[in-house]
Amino acid sequence: MSTIRDDCGKASRLQKDPGGAISRRIRIERESRGWSLSDLAEQSGVSKAMISKIERAEASPTATVLGRLSGAFGLPLSVLLALAEREEECLSLHDAQPLWADPETGYTRRAVSPPGAKVELIEVFLPAGVRIPYPAAAFAFQHQQIWVISGALDFTEGSTLHQLQEGDCLMLGPPADCVFSNPHNAAARYLVALTRR
Amino acid sequence: MSTIRDDCGKASRLQKDPGGAISRRIRIERESRGWSLSDLAEQSGVSKAMISKIERAEASPTATVLGRLSGAFGLPLSVLLALAEREEECLSLHDAQPLWADPETGYTRRAVSPPGAKVELIEVFLPAGVRIPYPAAAFAFQHQQIWVISGALDFTEGSTLHQLQEGDCLMLGPPADCVFSNPHNAAARYLVALTRR
DNA sequence: CGCAATCGTCTCTTATAGTGGACATTATCA
DNA sequence: TGATAATGTCCACTATAAGAGACGATTGCG
């Protein structure tokens, strides 16, 4: 059992660099107003070279320039930052998604949904020939569906076998012992959607 | 008629540097937790030398270090900034208070209260021998009091003369022609408290 | 087509944010 | 009272944010 992206010890108190979210937010505010870099530079008094770097997250703006930029947008600085944070907690970027991989089999689970979402989406990669059993006791969900993105999947729910093909979607019934298995010679990719209890 | 602190032209869109408010806020958050500079430095990963500069507004922190500091406080960055802004709009620093001075007489009015306050406090400096008449039409207040801070003041309300000494406080009645005058040989300093209509 | 205008990025330089360590000052205690 | 530890500031140095202008790419227009 290993977790990805775990902060160790003291670092756990450290907040992750807000640079990415801020840079995206600033670009959104600028483009949604139809402004070019030069326009915003003139309005804010910040050089367009600097704004370009900030939007591409190549520089971390100082409080001073953040104040000038938010002023140009007509927003209080705290609101600009709040918008950035909101986006951050609603948008889960692919490279930031928690990932768990079994080095033995190549089985891979990726938590696609941002934390706190009501419906959790999990992308699973199941290599050819791999078999993953799930005891009924592991089910802490209210509702669960499986949708095959590519390849094919044999899914055993209790005593019934479902042979799922690409594009098929199965809604699970009450908790039962389950087995995900891929007896074919091509890898399978599927999505699990679930609501936690 | 002249106004102090008027931004000219394009600069009117520029927001004033949030550095002062941020620096005060950070010091408050740190001290209210009983943390030393070293403590916060350890918690946040920002050098204590830098924190010292930030708190004394000698440096404008980057988004990166602001993120680390707010993380150490356990606050979202936007909340930290919102607290700073709130303080900014509730606290009116002496040197930032709008001031009007009559170059001829030396009569001086200073708006002490932050903008938006329900009760407006005005500090007045009335040099010796100066006389300032106020027509009743100029009254757009619901309520008004005059408190003499130092020196003495002859205040005429309609036809009645009030000879106010240091420490005296007068509540005004319905609108009437008024005169502030200082017939003594020492300057007078008094406070006017009023609620706008 | 070609010219001009506009856009975002890149390069170079300067200003300053950020760090580690020394320092003066002030509590704390033997 | 002297030793020790803690606190905040100052200093020298490094990393990087910020500015001025050049550059290639794209667009629009005659």
UniProtKB/TrEMBL annotation, chains A, B:
Short name of one Pfam family: HTH_3
Signal peptide: none
Any one of the GO CC terms: cytosol
GO molecular function: DNA binding; DNA-binding transcription factor activity
HTH cro/C1-type domain residues: 26-80
InterPro entries per the UniProt record, alphabetical: Cro/C1-type_HTH, Lambda_DNA-bd_dom_sf, RmlC_Cupin_sf, TransReg_Diox_bact_type
Gene3D superfamilies per record: lambda repressor-like DNA-binding domains
Key words of the record: DNA-binding
Protein name: Helix-turn-helix protein
Organism: Neorhizobium alkalisoli
